[in-house]
Amino acid sequence: MKHYSHIVILSFFLTACAVQSPPPSPSPDSSNNLTLGIVQSKIHKGMSQTDVLETLGSPNIVTKNSMTQEVWTYDKVGSNRSSSTTVNYGQRTLGQGFLSFLFGGTTSSSAANAKNETKTLTVIITFDDNKNVSNFTYHSLKY
Questions:
Q1: Helix, strand, coil % (nearest 5) of the chain?
Q2: Which of 35, 59, 116, 143 is least surrounded by CB atoms within 10 angstroms?
């Protein structure tokens, strides 16, 4: 009976310390496929609507122009904020006096820098009557 209790306790500790397998990676989000590089390299005249959907995902707006051609508009806005901080302290200088220089007189300074950046990408794709790309334009802006 004593051996069984040791086995039970040992198995409890071994299972408590077991490593879980990582969760499955999420399927790629089609909204992340809309980049300037993807548009420039993969979208071309004659491409089918199905291929455009697989490449860029669903459009934000679907309309028809004056010639009753289907027009898809993709619009993506992203922003990024970065900041940095610099702190300098503990530098001794003779400008504070000789005794302060010898016995621990120090200077300190700090500076902070924040930067906001916003990017937009608008892609307009026009399809012909056969549901193939007849024309496309894009506009990318960073400010």
A1: 30, 40, 30
A2: 143
